[in-house]
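Quick sanity check, Ribosome recycling factor:
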Amino acid sequence: MAYDFSSLKKDTQETEDWFVGELSSIRTGRASAVVLDGIRVDSYGAKVPVSHIAGVTTEDAKTLRITPWDKGLVKEIEHAVAKADLGVSVVADSEGLRVIFPELTGERRETFIKIARAKAEVTRKRLRRVRDEVWGDIQEKERTGVITEDEKFRFKDDMQKMVDAANTRIGELVEKKEKEIMS
């Protein structure tokens, strides 16, 4: 009998995707529109992402341009970006807003690396929880006689290989992010 690892694969992929999203929200010293993804702007009584009410483009390595489709929302966007505490300067002009990213200090880079490592640990904990749920299911199938003890341990090895591969990918992603932050 073969064990259905589809739920493990799905949960592992979702966890990795979440981690990639979390890493993309960490500044690297270069202007990136992804940094604004988590910011919600009060627009006509609803909290909406900046990307839903404005165009966001990169002017240069240190500057983003936010062009609201409704010029009346400039103040709300400016307030929301300032409130997000991203460590950026926001300047309103005739076209919309410019978000200026200052050079990262060594101390700030170290802080971002610590944040990336903490998010990696949260991701690893999620993977362990998923692994433990699957292991519990495998053990239950063995207790009820659906699979043999040999199959249980073979499935455990297969499961662990999948989790180890995911952990390796998480490690590679955090290393890549650290290099981006330090460059």
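Posting the structure with no commentary besides this: The radius of gyration is 22 Å.
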